[in-house]
Amino acid sequence: MRAGIVIGMVIQFSIAACDKEEAPPATRSAITAGAAIFERECVSCHDAYTSEMGPTLLGIFSQREYSWLVAWIEDPIGMGEGDSIGRELAREWAGNRMPPNDLSKRDIHQVLAYMASIDTFPRPSEY
Ligand code: HEC
Which residues have any ligand 1 atom within 6 Å of their CB? Predict the structure, then answer.
């Protein structure tokens, strides 16, 4: 009986884990590839320390779940309409929405691996 409950819980957890997009291991090559993608596709709006064209992404991993970040980068326009956090962001940055991109799922994991690698860098004032 008790074992049955435990097995049930394990199955439940496995299903929940499948629903969520998990971060793949951040290898050195994923981070390097992600840095190139960030440089090409993101840095024009997301400088690490300033936020004129878009929000600063420093510390983002303590604010958002990994699966939310994947969903956002996959479809910033759709998430800006259909997701409650997304709608708030879109309202806040009304004059300057994040455009759609052609990144594959793999590209997105790589760019997130790079972002995670710089996520905890100190700000210049903290050096
Ligand atoms: C043309 C400017 C622009 C580009 C290019 C851009 N973004 Fe954005 N980004 C924004 C804006 C503006 C927002 C705020 C939400 C909105 O209005 O769309 C945003 C929001 C975000 C958020 C959510 C921030 C939060 O506080 O939750 C993430 C994550 C993000 N961008 C990542 C990226 C990544 C990764 C790239 C490159 C693949 C990228 N962005 C490219 C302008 C941009």
Answer: 41-42, 44-46, 53-55, 57, 60, 64, 69, 72-73, 76, 80, 89-90, 93, 96-99, 101, 103, 111
16 CA distance to ligand 1 centroid (A)?
Answer: 27
User: Mean pLDDT score of the chain, rounded to an integer?
Assistant: 84
pLDDT tens track for 74-124? 999 999 999 999 999 999 998 899 999 999 999 999 999 999 998 866 555
The whole model's pTM is what? 0.85
- Ligand 1 pocket test target in 31, 40, 45 with most atoms within 8 Å of CB: 45
In the structure encoding, which two tokens stand for residue 113, read together? 């691996």
Query: What domains appear along the chain, each with residue ranges and CATH number?
Result: 26-126 (1.10.760.10)
